[in-house]
Automatic annotation (TrEMBL):
Protein name per UniProt: YceK/YidQ family lipoprotein
Signal peptide: 1-25
InterPro entries, per database record: DUF1375
Top-level taxon of origin: Bacteria
Record key words, sorted: Lipoprotein, Signal
Length: 106
């Protein structure tokens, strides 16, 4: 009984960790194209600003992220980026263009 609980706990932990970068990239928006989670993990591994404690976790998660990105290829093929972040960035760029075209009143 105790052995089966340990296996269940371990498999639950592995499942919970699977594809963290992929899930974050797909729900956060901004990353378009195929395999956004794998690209994000690769960038984190190559970045000098990533802490030494985070790099092993990213390296451990990278194969699971690649598998999750592969499963989500149909989603990537048909999605449009309408996340809150992308809508705010689009609105800010429109406002910036409007503000630069209209000089401030003195």
């Amino acid at each position: 009984m105790k052995r089966s609980f340990q296996k269940l706990l371990l498999s639950s932990a592995v499942t919970a960790m699977c594809g963290c970068s992929s899930v974050m990239s797909h729900t956060g928006g901004g990353e378009l194209g195929y395999y956004p989670g794998t690209r994000a993990s690769y960038k984190m591994l190559k970045d000098d600003e990533t802490s030494w404690g985070m790099k092993p976790l990213v390296a451990l998660d990278m194969p699971f992220t690649a598998v999750m990105d592969t499963v989500l290829i149909p989603w990537d093929a048909f999605r449009t980026d309408k996340s809150i972040k992308s809508r705010v960035e689009e609105s800010e760029s429109k406002n910036l263009a409007t503000n630069s075209a209209i000089p401030p009143a003195s």
